[in-house]
Structures are given as C-alpha cells and as structure tokens.
Design goal:
Layout: E1 10-15, H1 22-35, E2 40-44, H2 45-53, H3 67-89, E3 94-98, H4 104-116, E4 121-127, H5 131-140, H6 153-170, E5 181-185, E6 190-194, H7 199-209, E7 218-222, H8 227-231, H9 242-258, E8 266-269, H10 273-278, E9 287-288, H11 305-311, H12 313-321, H13 334-350, E10 355-359, H14 361-372, E11 388-394, E12 399-405
Parallel strand pairs: 1-3, 1-4, 2-3, 4-5, 7-10, 8-9, 8-10
Antiparallel strand pairs: 5-6, 7-11, 11-12
Bound molecules: 6-O-phosphono-beta-D-fructofuranose.
Length: about 425
C-alpha cells in the first residue's frame, strides 16, 4: 500500500571516506525524520554488496584500478539507487542513499538519475581526519560487521585501513557551488550549508550540529505513584502518594549508585508537582520543561477511563480506533506530543553527561520511541510502567537498554486494579 506523504520526495546522498560515520549519520537522520512522521528509509550500498557479492572481499576488491571490482561495485550502487527511486515513487518521502559517493563522477550519476524522476538530491558529506574518531569507528562498527566475521581484529583493522587508502586515492570532496549540500566537519565541530532550501533539509542542521559520540546513559522514569494514579484519574497535578515518595528515595539511591565517579548529571522534569517531587532527593532545582508535561487529555482531564467510557462513549471509541492520532477534545494526541518534544530531543542529543528524565507515561513513550527507533505509531502501546528506571545508552548504530524495577515495599497500589488504559 502506498505510504502517506506530506511533502515532495527528497533524496539525501551521503558522501565520505569509509569510517567517517556516514551510516551513523544516515541512521540518525532516518530515525529523527521517521519519528517526526516523515516516511524515511536508508538504502545502504554496502548491504547490497554483502548480499549479492559476498561479505568477505579483500581490500584489493576496492582498489579503483581493479576493473572487475569497480564494475561490480558500480552495479550494486545502481541497484540500490534504482530501488531507492522506486520506493520514493511509491510514496516514500525521504530516502537516504548511504554510500561513499566519493567522486564527482559518481555524484553526477546519482544526481542525473534522481533528476530524471523529479527527485532533488541533497548531499551530506562527513569529513573527519581525527585518527581517534576514525579508529573508534573502525573498532565499534567495521570490525563487528559481517565483512570481518571470524577475522582476527588486528588483521581486520589492517585490511580496513588499506581499503580506506584505496578510496583516499580518488576521493574528491564536495565543492560544487551549484549543488545542494551539508558538509559536516569533525563530528559537528563545523557545519557548512550550501543551497539548502525546503522545509525538511533545513530541519536537519540542528540535529547535525549536536552530533557527538560520547557514551553516556539516559535514564527515563515516570514520576512515583501520585494520588491521582491511586484513584485511576488522568492528568491533573496531584502530589505523590506515600508509595511515590518511597520511589523518589529509591530513585535517588539508584541513580547515585550508577553515576560514574566525578560525572555530573542533568535532571529534567515536567512542570508538574509529581515529577518535581520525584526529583527532590536528587536536586532542589531540576530543569522543569513544559514540553515534558503529560499528554493533555483536554475535556477528559481529571476523569477515569471508566468515566470516559460511560459518559463520553464517542471519545472512548475514537481513541481505541486510533490512539496515536486521536486528539482529545481541547487536548492532544500522541502525534501532537511528538511535535512538541522535538526541541527537547535536540537538546537531549547535545548532552554529553548522563541525563535523568522524570516525566509521564505518554511523553516517555514518545521519547522512548525516538531513542529506540520504534515507529511512532507504536508509541501508544509501549510499556513504560511506574516505578521502573529505563536505562538507555546510545551506541554507534542503536541503543542498549536495561530496565531496573524499583517497586516500593509499601502495600500494593489500588491503581494496579484499574482496567488497562484506553
Ligand atoms: O494514567 C496516567 C497517565 O499519565 C495519564 O495522566 C495520561 O492521560 C495517561 O497516563 C496516558 O496514557 P494513555 O495514552 O495510555 O491513556
């Protein structure tokens, strides 16, 4: 079935030597745009090569003087390009062409094919000469790839360096003043934009300037149980229950025990009493964001699910039918929540210290979906239980997840007897 598309199709074509973080950037951009509701897909030429030509090719295969290798690689690049154009024609909105595209000639070819189908191309080039960053990329991504399965790591690193050298001999950085491009130098230290027009490409700059590769945990937690949680009431601004208070204390103990020595931590809450009270043993002054406030249930704020079903059956039925898009009368939908979290995500990406986010069920579902790359329409059913710390550590191509239940020892909550949410 064709996708629903809000904007004209666009192709983003990566440019850069091997191990310059192209795939990392491509995936990050794809995750961000998909989360914001733009159907986005990455077409990785390396995967086509592995699938059709076999993963374990020696570095000589990539030598530009190896005519056979060159022809085979060109074939893979064109196969991926054709699939990408077909996908855009079927309704895809943003396609990311993840390849080295390291010569002017190759980029011209990409541009001409796309132009024939009315698809504008924006190049994204990653330039980085810092050997520590390149070595880290080789270690964390290349040596773990099927290209080097069962190969001794030192041998693999040596072969990969030789592969890079083949590309270096012919590499031509982007310099066409007529082309539309974003150049990222040294992982976001400097960004150059050339002829960037249009809504979507312009949205990428704030994401790309916040790139970094420092490993740090992000802890997500709901506030401790509130008085309204005990009663099964949506929204409001109630205080913590005694069990919620107990969770606030356990949370402080937990986070302090996990925090690396000397590390400072950032604590973010919503503007609601229950999240600020949950942070009270960690900081007197958390950064309280309105963007982290719970989904606005509009005219249903202050009601229970049972009351909504009995008194406003239309609201109940419509929300069950499409919980992601359903907007409470005078309130919000999950889709709305994602849009208001956009600036917060950019801020979160920027942080290199551990961050603790104390917020609410719906808002955390939206943040969690972004961080773990779940399709946005799955948000409403993601599990974010009370009294559980979700530790997410972004890695090169994904996110490591650990969950720590810190259930209070005070008696069970009456909230657990409420029926499953709408
Ligand atoms: O019940 C707690 C709560 O945070 C409510 O304030 C909010 O309306 C609800 O969860 C969001 O969850 P759902 O979208 O599943 O109703």
């Amino acid at each position: 079935m064709p996708h629903q598309r809000d904007a004209a199709p666009t192709a983003l074509a990566m440019v850069g030597l091997p191990a310059r973080g192209k795939t990392y950037i491509a995936r990050k951009v794809a995750r961000y745009l998909s989360w914001l509701g733009h159907p986005t897909r990455v077409f990785n030429v390396g995967s086509y090569r592995r699938e059709h030509l076999g993963a374990q090719q020696p570095n000589s295969f990539f030598d530009p003087d190896n005519a056979e290798g060159k022809q085979a690689l060109l074939g893979m690049a064109m196969a991926a390009l054709d699939d990408m154009i077909a996908w855009l024609e079927e309704g895809g909105e943003v396609a990311i062409y993840d390849a080295t595209n390291s010569t002017r000639l190759r980029r011209q070819l990409v541009q001409e094919r796309c132009k024939k189908h009315g698809v504008p191309v924006v190049f994204i080039e990653s330039i980085c000469d810092d050997p520590t960053v390149i070595d880290a990329t080789v270690r964390e991504t290349k040596l773990l790839s099927p290209d080097y399965a069962l190969v001794d790591p030192d041998e693999a690193a040596k072969d990969f360096r030789a592969r890079i050298a083949h590309y270096e001999r012919v590499y031509e950085p982007l310099d066409d003043p007529e082309a539309s491009y974003i150049k990222i130098i040294d992982v976001g230290r400097k960004i150059e934009l050339n002829r960037i027009r249009g809504y979507l490409p312009a949205r990428l700059a704030p994401l790309l300037i916040n790139l970094h590769i420092t490993r740090r945990p992000i802890w997500l937690t709901r506030h401790g149980e509130s008085v309204f949680n005990q009663l099964g009431i949506l929204g409001g601004d109630s205080d913590l229950s005694p069990r919620g208070e107990e969770y606030a204390r356990s949370l402080a103990r937990f986070v302090n025990s996990q925090l690396p020595r000397e590390a400072s931590m950032i604590v973010w809450t919503s503007t609601m009493r229950r999240t600020i009270q949950t942070a009270q043993h960690l900081t007197r002054k958390p950064r309280a964001w309105r963007a982290l406030d719970e989904i606005d249930a509009g005219i249903c704020d202050g009601m229970t699910y049972e009351q909504i079903e009995a008194d406003m059956p239309d609201v109940h039925t419509a929300r069950v039918a499409d919980k992601f898009r359903y907007r409470y009368p005078r309130g919000e939908s999950y889709e709305d929540v994602i849009q208001r979290l956009d600036p917060l995500i950019l801020n979160l990406e920027r942080q290199e210290s551990p961050v603790l986010v104390i917020a609410h069920q719906a808002v955390l579902r939206a943040l969690y979906a972004y961080l773990t790359d779940h399709p946005p329409n799955e948000c409403p059913s993601l599990s974010i239980p009370l009294h559980t710390v979700i530790q997410l550590t972004p890695t090169a191509y994904g996110c490591e997840e650990k969950r720590f239940p810190l259930e209070p020892v005070l008696g069970p909550s009456p909230a657990s007897n409420h029926p499953p949410p709408l």
